[in-house]
């Protein structure tokens, strides 16, 4: 059985990088990956402007008790006049700073009446001005090729006037659930059936990462059914995820189906709990990851082993999210011959320590543990871990992004 870290590295390197690029409007760019490094086209802000609703003055014109005539009311979006000596110009947040002005007085610190301004407090030279280029300078690098575009990146690109960007095509993922015991939600169910939860779960995980789950197919436990579904997925998708039928049971036919399809098995079985029967194969030059059927195993394997591969195939440069650490908070002692990944809920206390509380039931069919947990705590193999021990923590917020 392969050790977990080797398997993770092997899966992360199992897919190709995108080779073609496409244009995408900025409004559609959330979750897409930049295919070119982008630079600032202009200084940000592009001109000195007011940070407050107030008045522009020349600091040297201030004298206690002396009123300044209001020369102009200059709204954001309007052009200011040059500030006359001994005058003030009424400004609003975002109004351009008039030429000749060097200070903005907040309106709360002054009284205006009959077009005259009386300043109540000694103003600080240069206050409340946002200077041209203080945020970003024209020519500076904004985001490197391979960056994931989220709201923060999109805000910066919009502020720089980018209406469209060059991105990699969205990765096309195909999902294949297997098993005669499964019926789709909404269908009639008999006692021997359970609802198929892995199909929609995996599609949601894929879509949350900015890839597209373009097929979610189901195959019965027969070679013909599996092969027909695999043919469609290998034709249409960049990456195939199968789930179930990958262990040692008599109806665990996924691996033979891939082999009959001309595929080669790269690895099978990893020393991890849950997730042991996971397999990696290639067919038609495309990676196929076979996830174990237990819902918790499929979720954990997707988080730890599939997500880095998916990020790499999307063209992202950061494929391994940061690892956290926390103190296990438990009555129980853990020790197993496999690396164990517990569903835990992380809570930070006032001293800044993260406490990781395991869900009471850790079975790989316990679907309720998934929505409860904030991530996975790693219990190293063959090591006794008890309350208060510090362990690595895989936060879903990072690992499923
Ligand atoms: N004799 C052994 N038995 C098992 C071993 C083993 O090493 N020796 N490994 C166990 C482990 S660990 C796991 S994990 C499971 C994985 O088996 P498979 O990947 O072949 O999955 P299935 O047998 O098809 O299903 C397992 C379980 O999950 C349910 N399932 C499957 N698909 C779905 C779905 N789409 N939605 C909801 N639930 C699903 C299925 O009904 C089973 O209960 O094997 C152990 N056995
Ligand atoms: O190792 Mo399996 O993935 O627990 O249930």
UniProtKB/TrEMBL annotation:
Required co-factor(s) are:
Mg(2+)
Full protein name: Molybdopterin molybdenumtransferase
Q: Where is the MoaB/Mog domain?
A: 174-312
Quote the CDD domains the UniProt record gives.
MoeA
Family classification: Belongs to the MoeA family.
Catalytic activity, as annotated: adenylyl-molybdopterin + molybdate = Mo-molybdopterin + AMP + H(+)
Record's keyword annotation contains Transferase? yes
